[in-house]
Design brief:
With about 350 residues, the protein is of the alpha/beta class. The chain has one domain. It is built from eleven helices and ten strands. A ten-stranded mixed beta sheet has the order 4-3-5-6-2-1-7-8-10-9, with helices on both faces. Helix 2 packs across helix 7, helix 3 runs parallel beside helix 4 and helix 3 runs parallel beside helix 5.
Length: about 350
């Protein structure tokens, strides 16, 4: 017969085990959070599952199903077909400077990459515990996610000044929740998420190891697609101007992953100015291929003895918001261009978009 003390101890063990099991069941994974924010059903045992009965989530899911379905048909499927025909031997790493949280187009152009490095000024932010949102907060949170994605769903880029407002509104902030949505809607499964930072030598460490240290902040997301191959997405919030990159370890970090394939689109023509020569020179020296619209690196900075050019689409010059950026040499190159059936950059309609594939000669 068990003694009372032993019975009490056994009861305590059973209670603790039950509590731990309940706590484990209450854990919301990063992948389930991404699915929920993307308007997709989380796993059946996820604590978020009851929240999908909220009418605001159901409306959100219908909206994203329609918006992403149209984008897939109009843009992404055509870009993947173009990439499959024109980027036969991609490098394992791709650089996407001035990207914001635009994983959609990084994945569409370079689906075979295993490491993606995105960078822009927008902060990483965080994803809050959705189970702790105040009553009625789900609808407002989902609405802010929709607002943050409005321009990339309608055009092909994020509008920086709008993101500064949208990504600081409500309970969700920064680029991380947007990356979650775009990963989920690209059919990816998130396996691990870590906030990281770079020291001045380009070495990465967990951001909480030295929270007061001045460093380049970022996030590392490990994910897999339908083939279950593990891949890594980095996003860094960093100043890409000359003074910004010279005082950070960002380009040193990128240099350890080079040579890479690079993507430049809707880059505000910053690489045309003298204040972004360092990152421009880095991309030219460390890219095996560069896919860009005319807002990327001006044609005059490519050495024609080192690069081969393949123009696609139509060069109609910059939009009115960027006067003085017309390139006569670009126009001449595009007179013999091949057509494309998708839109890209600021001239996002397919019949007026330009795309230049530059391949470095070995």
């Amino acid at each position: 017969m068990l003694q009372p003390v032993k019975i009490a101890a056994l009861a305590a063990i059973v209670f603790l085990a039950t509590a731990m099991a309940a706590r484990a069941a209450d854990v919301v994974t990063a992948n389930d959070t991404a699915l929920f924010l993307a308007g997709m059903l989380p796993s059946a045992n996820s604590p978020l599952m009851p929240l999908t009965k909220d009418p605001s989530w159901q409306r959100h899911a219908r909206f994203f199903d329609s918006a992403f379905g149209q984008l897939e048909q109009r843009q992404l499927s055509k870009i993947r077909a173009w990439a499959d025909s024109n980027l036969a031997a991609p490098r394992p790493t791709m650089f996407y400077m001035f990207s914001g949280p635009d994983f959609l187009y990084a994945d569409a152009f370079y689906p075979k990459a295993t490491t993606y490095v995105l960078s822009a000024l927008e902060p990483v932010g965080s994803v809050p515990d959705l189970m702790r949102l105040p009553y009625g907060g789900i609808g407002f949170t989902l609405y802010n996610v929709e607002r943050s994605l409005a321009s990339i769903l309608s055009f092909s880029f994020f509008i920086t000044k709008d993101m500064k407002t949208d990504l600081s509104a409500g309970q969700i902030g920064g680029t991380l929740p947007i990356l979650y949505v775009l990963l989920a809607r690209s059919g990816k499964t998130i396996r691990d998420v870590s906030l990281i930072a770079l020291d001045d030598r380009g070495a990465a460490y967990f951001a909480n190891e030295n929270p007061g240290r001045r460093a380049t902040r970022g996030v590392r997301i490990v994910f897999a697609g339908s083939d279950h191959q593990e891949k890594t997405l980095y996003y860094f919030s960093t100043d890409l101007s000359n003074s910004g990159v010279r005082s950070s370890g960002f380009l040193k970090f990128c240099g350890m992953l080079a040579p890479a394939n690079s993507l430049l689109k809707s880059a505000s023509y910053l690489l045309h100015s003298g204040n972004f020569t360092t990152v421009r020179d880095f991309l030219l020296a460390n890219s095996a291929t560069i896919v860009q619209d005319d807002s990327g690196i001006p044609l005059a900075y490519y050495d024609p003895k080192k690069w081969r050019f393949f123009p696609f689409g139509r060069y109609a010059g910059p939009i009115a918001e960027f006067p003085g950026r017309y390139q006569p040499k670009y126009a001449e190159l595009f007179r013999g261009s091949q057509p494309i059936d998708f839109g890209i950059g600021y001239r996002w309609r397919s019949y007026e978009s330009n795309l230049l594939l530059s391949i470095q000669i070995p």
